[in-house]
Each structure stands twice: as C-alpha cells, then as structure tokens.
Amino acid sequence: MPRTIIEPFRIKSVEPIRWTTRREREQLLRAAHYNLFLLPAADVLIDLLTDSGTGAMSTHQWAAVMEGDESYAGSKSFDRFRASVQEIFGYRHVIPTHQGRAAERILFGIACKKGDLVPNNTHFDTTRANVEFAGAEAVDLVIPEGRQSQTDHPFKGNMDVVALRELIVRVGRDRIPLVMLTVTNNSGGGQPVSMANICEVSALCREHKIPLYFDACRFAENAYFIKLREKGYDSKTPKQIAQEMFSYGDGCTMSAKKDGMANIGGFLCTNDDLLAQQQKDLLILTEGYPTYGGLAGRDLEAIAVGLQEALEEDYLRYRIASTAYLGNHVAAQGVPIVQPPGGHAIYLDARAFLPHVPVEQFPGVALAAELYLEGGIRSVEIGSLMFGKSAKMDLVRLAIPRRVYTQSHIDYVVEIILEVWRKRGSIRGLKLNYEAPFLRHFTAKLEPV
Ligand code: F0G
Question: How would DSSP label each residue in 167-179?
Fold first, then answer.
C-alpha cells in the first residue's frame, strides 16, 4: 500500500476562510480580552476549538437530508435513524435528543438520587455537571497512566478495575446506579479504552448487578484504536468491533456531533424497559415526542448515514493518521504533548511549554492566545482557567473537525506551533479581570501581566 495517506474524499463545496494581519489579530485579541471564545469565528483562519458539530457532511448525508420526514409522530426518518443506531449499538430502546448533554440529563435525572456515586474513567465536564445536578457524586477512576501526560500506553483511557471494585465494596452497590465508560476518553487526551478493559468492567458490573453505560461520542475512533493496537482485532471491521464493545453494556449516551458526523443531535439507548418508559416521559416534557426528541427529521437522516460513515475504514485510517501526524511532527522538535496522540485532538502541555509562566498566570490561555496571534489558529485551554485550582495540568487542546481540513492545513498548524515554540521565551502570562461564578472560561476577561 502507498505510504502517503490522502483524504478519502474530494471536495465539491468550499467555504472560504479569511486571512488577517498580525496587527489585526493583536487588536482582535485585545477586544476579545485574550479569551478565544469571545472571538468572532470569521476572524479565525483554522478553527480547532472543538471537533463537536463542526464536521463536514457527505453527499450521501445531504441527499438523506432531502428525505427528512418532518411528521410530528411516527416519522419515517425516525425508523431509519433507529435502524442505523440499533445495527451498531444493539440496544432495545433508542431515544433521540438534541445533543449529548440532553441524553445525560435524562439518564442521570432518572437513575441517580442524592448520595449516589457514578464512576467513569473520566467524566467530560457536562457529564460531571449533570451527575452533580442530579445530586450524585462523579468519581473519575482512569488508570494511573491516564493521568500522566508523558507516559506511553496503548489504552490510556482504561478504567482502573481494582479501584472500581474497591469503590463498589466500600460504598455498596445500592449507591452506584450505573458505571460509565467514556470512549474515547476526551478529558484524558482522547485516549482509547481496550476491549479487554471493557470486558473486565462489564464482568465486574454484572457480578454486582450494576448497569454499564457508554459515553459513546467517539466510539468509532475507539473501535479503530482497538483494531490497530489490540491483539486479535486486526482482521475485524470497525463496525464489528463497535458492535462487540456495546454488547458488553446496557446502554449509552451519545453526542452525534462527534462520531455521528452531524452538526447537531444525540441519543440515549437502554435495554431497560422501565427506565426507557420514564426516560420517554421526561423527553416529552423537555425535548420532544420520542420519534424526534428535539431534532428535525432531516437531522435524524443525517445521523443515520453519518454513524455508518464514521465506521468506514478508509475514513478512520485518514482520521487517526492525520491527528497523529500533527502530534508527531511537533513532538519530534521537542514540543511537549500528551502522549501518545489521541483520536480527535492533540493536547499541548502548556506548563512544560512555558515553564517561566507561573500556573496562576494561566500558561494554557497564554499559549492559546499566542497560537492565534502567530497564525490565526483557535484552540482551547483545558486547565487552570477552566477548572480553577483543581486543575492537575494546563493543556491546550487542538481538536480536529471531521473531514474539514486538508493535509496542507495540518502542515500549516505544525509550522505555526513550531514558530511559537521557537519564541516561547518571550510569551508572557495573563491576569484575570473578570470571572463568572461558574463555567468561567467561556466568558472570562484577561490581560497580559
Ligand atoms: N461526552 C463527551 C466525552 C464529550 O466530549 C461531549 C462534548 C459530551 C459528552 C457532550 O455532548 O456537546 O453534544 O452535549 N464535547 C465537546 C468538546 C463539547 O468540545 O469536547 P454535547
């Protein structure tokens, strides 16, 4: 097979991106108070803020959009959506929602009560917030390697099964309404969970009669990492691997904005009939009738096709190779990144990148601001601004939208990161001028010290 990995698509509709001058970016950054969330997207050249809802749809998805059945109840689009989800996930009930966090709110709102605990490898921030909003405690139990940025391990997203067993024995199964596995582990660097680990967690849950749910946002990328890295899976298709993964669980929450290849949407799956009935009742109250759940029929069509496309091997080979290419090319020049490269994003270690900037001066925010100044790239800080004093690392995430940027865009990002790396000694920290009482990173205002 040729060595060069190409985009497995050609482009038939283009969206121009706009160059700005360095002087313009200096002004724009000042006006945005050094917070990239406050920048107009039109002033960003390469937008790596998130891979969520930012992907490009295929011709097949756009064609399916025209087939959207907008009936309030019993729409044909729902049937196609459910059939596509069930083929891959295999669960009895499929409940559409407007995005992932709506599925989380409904699941935890019904399953959790005050004093409960929900273990996960690592909760994503909305998942944690929804567990806590339901009165329960969110417990992160990723393996120790998953907390160290430089340690190499093929499945850094794995759950610490010994710690999970200890927790169940210590607090009792009655206080653990469900266990969750996030595939891939976004907050831990987009790192995968192995099939062996999924099996072990599943066996432990079944032994104690605790349901196992997946946070399935990036399930296709996880399946492909299993194919590449786990013994016995290299001749299986990503779809067969995904089907096996989900067979060990009892349900899932899903944001179709990631591996659903759609710009909006999500769903909740369960095998539990009683829970499904309660979930549908709550869905009608806040999201919509159970055959649309807050989505248009055309959105359901786009997801039905997108889920299948996310599992295509040509696509996954390009996707994982492209992310690794970015990470490996900057790491080869000494840039500190979370190792190994994850599925959807590269995470720069800002504390190691800017050792002269104290943690109180937000090294992650300072580095993200510099990447914008140097090359118009937007990334996101995951560190002291986002999590306050509880932040264990200061990372800058460069998340790659699906099927949006080409190899030359990635080469450009590499060049800009290396240029900032050369100038790192002159980068200054920032001080906070305004913060909201919660989720402060979205609206914070800062200035250079
Ligand atoms: N779970 C994980 C692992 C996620 O990464 C996200 C979203 C959600 C749940 C919530 O889904 O946005 O559809 O409500 N992650 C995005 C990100 C926002 O940028 O990583 P949602």
Answer: HHHHH-GGG---E
Supply the Cα-derived Rg of the chain in whole angstroms: 21
What percent of the chain clears pLDDT 70, i.e. is strictly above it?
A: 100
For ligand 1, say whether the CB of 126 is within 6 Å of any of its atoms. Answer: yes
From CA 353, how far away is CA 375, in angstroms rounded? 18
- Tell me if 182 CB under 6 Å of ligand 1: yes
Answer whether 370's CB lies under 8 Å from 427's CB.
Answer: yes
pLDDT of residue 157: 97
Q: Is the pLDDT of residue 5 over 90?
A: no
- CA distances to 121, 136, 141, 168 from 112, rounded to whole Å, are 18, 6, 19, 16
Cα 242 to averaged position of ligand 1 atoms, centre (Å): 19
Q: Does the CB atom of residue 270 touch ligand 1 within 6 A?
A: no
Asked if 210 and 179 touch (Cβ cutoff 8 Å), the reply is: yes
All residues at 6 or more sequence positions from 396 whose CB lies less than 8 Å from its CB, including other chains: 347, 348, 350, 353, 364, 367, 368, 371, 379, 380, 381, 382
E strand or H helix at 180? strand 179-182
Q: Which atom of ligand 1 is nearest to the CA of 266?
A: 13
pLDDT band at 373 (very low <50, low <70, confident <90, very high): very high
DSSP 47-95: E-S-SSS-PPPPHHHHHHHHT----SSS-HHHHHHHHHHHHHH--SEEE
Angle at 113 between CA 112 and CA 115, to 5 degrees: 115
**What mean pLDDT do residues 310-333 have?**
97
Q: Quote the CA–CA distance of 361 and 349 in Å, as a whole number.
A: 15
How much of the chain is helix, strand and coil, in % rounded to 5? 45, 15, 40
Computed from CA positions of residues 365, 369, 375, 379, in that sequence, does the dihedral angle turn out positive or negative? Answer: positive
Q: Mean pLDDT score of the chain, rounded to an integer?
A: 96
437 has a pLDDT exceeding 90: no
Q: Is the pLDDT of residue 14 over 90?
A: yes
Helix (H) or strand (E) holding 347: strand 345-349
Q: Measured from the CA of 186, which atom of ligand 1 is nearest?
A: 3
